[in-house]
Amino acid sequence: MSEDRRKILDMLASGKITAGEADSLLSALDRPTLDQATKPLPKFLRVMVDASERNERAVVNVRVPLQLLRAGVKLASLIPPEAYSHVTEAIGAKGIKIDLSQLNAGNLNDLIEALSEMTVDVDAEGAKVRVFCE
């Protein structure tokens, strides 16, 4: 859940606003702003690596559909709530720290929106790595 939605619901719960006002505010959050209306959401996470070692050249160009993330969230919702801790522990044992019980479509949309602004460029001796959304 986004921070704005949480604040609106907190104001409603504490009686600072009415249910009608909360509904209007939540509806306003769902309407795209001018920036969002003109700028499409990214569809792919792209990883490009151009590395040269001695006389050989390695090139990696991977496009991961962000729709795959959405499908993963839907699949994660099928995990029974009592199994979340076991799954989280198993994933954590592999070095990935994530709490599946906190994963939902709202969080994912926030993540994808944040990714749309992200570009990582790494230049090192003999290699160039670029990660971005398109």
Characterization of this structure:
- The chain has 2 domains: 1-31, no CATH class; 40-133, no CATH class.
- The model has no long low-confidence stretch (mean pLDDT 79).
- The chain is extended and about 70 Å long.
- It has 6 helices and 4 strands.
- The longest helix has 12 residues, at 19-30.
- It has a 4-stranded antiparallel beta sheet.
- Helix 1 (3-13) packs antiparallel against helix 2.
- It is an alpha+beta fold and 134 residues long.
- The protein is 46% helix and 25% strand.
Major sheet summary line: 4 strands, antiparallel
Distance between the terminal alpha carbons, to the nearest Å? 25 Å
Using only C-alpha atoms, the radius of gyration works out to 20 Å
**What is the residue-mean pLDDT, rounded to a whole number?**
79
* SSE sequence, one letter per element: HHHEEHHHEE
Query: In what order do the strands lie side by side in the largest sheet?
Result: 2-1-4-3
Entry keywords:
4-stranded antiparallel sheet; 6 helices; 25% strand; alpha+beta; 134 residues
Q: Would you spell out the secondary-structure blueprint of this structure?
A:
Blueprint: H1 3-13, H2 19-30, H3 34-38, E1 44-53, E2 56-65, H4 66-76, H5 84-93, H6 105-116, E3 119-124, E4 127-133
Antiparallel strand pairs: 1-2, 1-4, 3-4
Helix pairs in contact: 1-2
